[in-house]
Amino acid sequence: MQHTAYYARLCLALAMLVLVPCSASADLTGFFGKTRAAGSNRTVKGAAVSVGRTAKFEFEYATTQEDLRKEQPQLTTYMLSSLLQSPNTSSRMQLYGVTGAGRYRETRGTASQSNFGFTFGTGVKMRVAGPLGLRIDYRIFTLRGTPSFKKPQRLYAGLNFTF
After folding, report:
1. Which whole number is the average pLDDT over 56-84?
2. DSSP output for 102-148
């Protein structure tokens, strides 16, 4: 339990650094993709909201459905992350790296468990027209406790709206 409190304080400190007053910018992404664990690919869907310019604070929710045939559990993640992206120049693309921590819930049938997890990854945001864009993201998770899969990976594409 001491580790959980330590990581929670660390996440809060990182969030405060990212939220230093500056001209605000935010974006919202709805996404759809694949989670890979133990050689199996399953559909994932979710949403992310971030605040900041080059250094951002992001909250992300995602769920991967249970696969009863392969006895793979549903995985739901709630991650709070720091996202560092290339400056928004005249280019239509922004590369970024992301790292964070949060909770996950694994559900198989009526049994479920929750614990702490970490994530890191990379991606690209591409402006399409005005505030609309496309986002492609790859992440690796490290799940604590006794999950079915300790290091699932996720690749998704989503519609991104900047405001």
Report:
1. 93
2. EEEEEEETTEEEEEEEEEEEEEEEEEEETTEEEEEEEEEEEE-SS-S
